[in-house]
Amino acid sequence: MRVKWTAARGLTAVAALLPLLAAWNPLQRPNRAVTDGNASLQKGKAEEALAHYDQAVAALPADPAVHYNRGTALAALSRYEEAIAELMRATESKSPSLKASAFYNLGNSYFQAGRYADAIAAYKRSLGLEPGDMRAKWNLELALQKKQDEDKKKQEQQDKDNKPDDQKKQDKDKDDQKKQDKDKKPDEKKQEPDAGAPKQEPPKPPQGQDAGAQPPPQEEPAAQPKDDKAPEMSEIDAVLDSLERSPKDLEKMRARLRAVRRAPPAKDW
To answer: N or C: which end of the chain has fewer CB within 10 A?
Structure first.
């Protein structure tokens, strides 16, 4: 009896993983639960399909095709560990086509569960049965890349854990120093003047006096000469005091002095 399978909607997979969601007819005899489950799976109703496949497994517990269908429905519901157990049963099939599909979906379930080494092995088994399956080749490459990334992270962690104690201490000291430098920065900012704080202005000078001008020092009045015989000398001193005040006054005073000198001397009688 030739086993027939029908391709259905694909599983939502990460990293462009190419899924295979297929429904198989039982090898022993037609089963209504399998037929209904296959129809639901084709419509994307995985939960409904699983309920039908549960009935089929109860009726045909030894049929690899029924386990394949149930495992595929579980994978579509992201119940990967349960799907792996069912698909492992399906790999016992005598049909090379069903066996290859079982290993393929088994690899997908391993991949989604993060078990990349197991996924690689399953894809290789699938390709051993169907070497031309491009989906299996593509997913194998993805699993190899994921495994490489995983091994790299593990190696980096292992190298970090295996560092000598003195190297670990140096790394810790560096981290502590960076933390201290980081903690100091806010304190330095606090010491800086606040740009938004109001500036203190210097006291304003008294009204009528220019800012920055100093009040002129008060000079003591010059002693008046006691000699009554020389009034012209007092006038000369006054002229000298006003020298820097008004050049015109100075000139007038000089003219007066010249007139005094030309006048005849005063009589004492």
So the answer is: C
